[in-house]
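TOKENISE THE FOLD
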Amino acid sequence: MITALNDQIKKTKKLDHIFKQGNNILAAFLVKQGDNISVVSLGVGHTCLPDSIIAESPDDVLHDHHAEILAKRGLVRFLVDEIEKLDSSIDYLSLILQKNSGAASMEKFKQHDLRGDIPSSSFVKRGRSSWDDLQSLRTKPGRVDSPFSSCMSCSDKIGLWNLLGIQSELLYPLTGPIFVDHIVIGCEIDNDIFMFSIFGRFKTEVELLGREISFRIPGVKSVSSSQCVCPHNDNLVFSSLSANWYIGVELEITTSIGRKLGAAKKQGEYPKSTRSRLCRSSIRDKVNAVLSGKSLISIANEYTLGKALIRSKGDLMRHWLIRDSSKQIDL
């Protein structure tokens, strides 16, 4: 799988431009169908938007630019684009991460401990604060003195994927749950801590969903960072650019305002053309176009019921930060 990823990195045009601008983090989803292994989506990034920027146009900007989130949204967009001819025979879905994060990465930050609970909830920690608390949910970014963002950490989100599937609520009626079978991490990890961060701490949620929806415990493997051709230069600062790619499209580069590179306002507003193809409104518009506007969430399904259950009764998931409670569909 690493070989397939390295081949795709080399083939993806403009990807080298991202890494020349500064260091970055990469993640990818790979699918195995029969004997064939292919990279379906790539994400490159390590930032997220503060709530102050998201509030201006929440559906038209990318909230979370972390690599695994971009790769996941790229996978969802690929499924949307291919929905009419989708072959359901995905035998094996793998997620490759260049680095681990969230609760799984706290140990290495114990020398930089800062206390930063979210004011409204002692069950949610800000960034890397309280490094020894591996149980709580966390928000991004890692620096607790950064502008506030309610984007949840990647280990929290991967935990949610293991509970409800990675396909999003919008596609669930068509695809059913799609789970990650295997996670490969390009750095040394403590396997027990990593598994606890993405699954073990959600014990109550697993018990709640046991009779409502399937869930999955992925296999986990760490490999040497030297096996990946993704470059890293200690003399460079981290880049503010992010990028996404999935099968059938060119690389899209986005910036720290959550829009495509080069985005500029016209008559005081950002044109529709500045939106990323992975933002909420772009994915929703594409689904509406493919399905001629027919709503897929007209009746309750297992995903909807499962989400409601863990957000109301789960020990951790009921503390998940939600910007707008009127948003009914997870994209």
About this structure: The mean pLDDT is 83. The chain is about 25% helix and 15% strand.
